[in-house]
Each structure stands twice: as structure tokens, then as C-alpha cells.
């Protein structure tokens, strides 16, 4: 039996509010999710959903996953940052340096994400969500490559990335 990446799920104090934020940032449609939450449907770049599941557990540490959003131009990066801030996001410091070209933000519930600078070759052609970054090891990347049938598109040291043969976001 083939394994399919159906959704990336985030805990949310207010799932509908968080879905509206991400819908505004990513221009994805908010849909009801059959598993007690709310979700964003896929887009032309990837078919996985982003699910928001109710949780009353407080966020106490940096998430084990975060999104890297892509930018087609410096103005597009500024526009994405402005849109996220207008929708309730905020700038955060996770240790990035002053010379970093990416902008690090948090959504209204504190979930970290990066808006990557234009011209990033690694994420070129991936779509608005360029990568879903996860904590893990090379062994975990190889496991998911095999389980999903997605090729390794990056394999260096303990860092790996896989991507659907159809394209879309990389899972790093």
C-alpha cells in the first residue's frame, strides 16, 4: 500500500482564525477538515493540505516544523511580509544574523516561519511554500523518502530533502 502525504498539521488554540491567517498569506482556500479541524486545500504546486487542529496546550518551545515561503522578487518578499504582518503575524528572533536575507516571522499563535529572499536556487520552482522544515536525522529523511516514494533531492551530512516527483514543496 502506498503512503500519501495528506496534510501537515498544526495545533491551534483557534483553528479557524489561524486558517484565515494562512489563507491570507498563501492564497489558499479554507475548507472544513473531516478530522475535527479546519484546513487549507492544496494549490497548483502541491496537493497536501495544511490542517489546524484544536489544542489547548500552550506553545512553550520552538516548533519542530516550520514553513519556508518563497519570493519571486525582492518586492514579492516585502509584500508577503507586509501581508503577514497585516494579518496578525509578527517579527521574531530565533538567532538569525543581521546579514540574513530571510525574514523570520511568527503567525498569530507563535508558529515560526521564514520568508526566503528572491533568487534562492534550492527552493526555485517549489511554489509559495518552498519547504516544510523538520527536525530530524538523515535516517529520518531516508525513511520518508522510501515511505512516500519521493526521491532525495538533497543529501549532505545529516541534512536531507525530499520532494514529490510532481514537484511542490520540499520536506527538509
TrEMBL record:
It comes from the Bacteria. It holds the Pfam family Glyoxalase_6. Residues 8-116 form the Glyoxalase-like domain. This is Glyoxalase-like domain-containing protein. It comes from Micromonospora marina.
Amino acid at each position: 500500500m502506498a503512503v500519501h502525504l495528506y496534510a501537515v498539521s498544526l495545533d491551534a488554540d483557534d483553528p479557524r482564525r489561524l486558517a484565515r491567517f494562512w489563507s491570507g498569506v498563501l492564497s489558499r482556500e479554507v475548507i472544513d477538515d473531516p478530522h475535527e479541524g479546519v484546513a487549507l486545500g492544496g494549490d497548483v504546486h502541491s496537493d497536501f493540505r495544511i490542517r489546524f487542529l484544536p489544542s489547548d496546550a500552550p506553545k512553550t518551545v520552538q516548533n519542530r516544523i516550520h514553513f519556508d515561503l518563497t519570493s519571486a522578487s525582492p518586492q514579492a518578499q516585502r509584500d508577503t511580509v507586509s501581508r503577514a504582518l497585516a494579518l496578525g503575524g509578527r517579527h521574531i528572533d530565533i538567532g538569525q544574523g543581521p546579514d540574513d536575507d530571510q525574514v523570520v516571522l511568527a503567525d498569530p499563535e507563535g508558529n515560526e516561519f521564514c520568508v526566503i529572499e528572491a533568487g534562492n536556487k534550492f527552493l526555485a520552482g517549489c511554489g509559495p511554500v518552498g519547504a516544510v522544515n523538520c527536525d530530524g536525522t538523515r535516517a529520518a529523511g531516508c525513511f520518508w523518502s522510501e515511505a512516500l516514494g519521493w526521491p532525495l533531492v538533497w543529501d549532505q551530512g545529516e541534512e536531507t530533502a525530499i520532494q514529490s516527483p510532481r514537484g511542490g514543496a520540499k520536506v527538509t
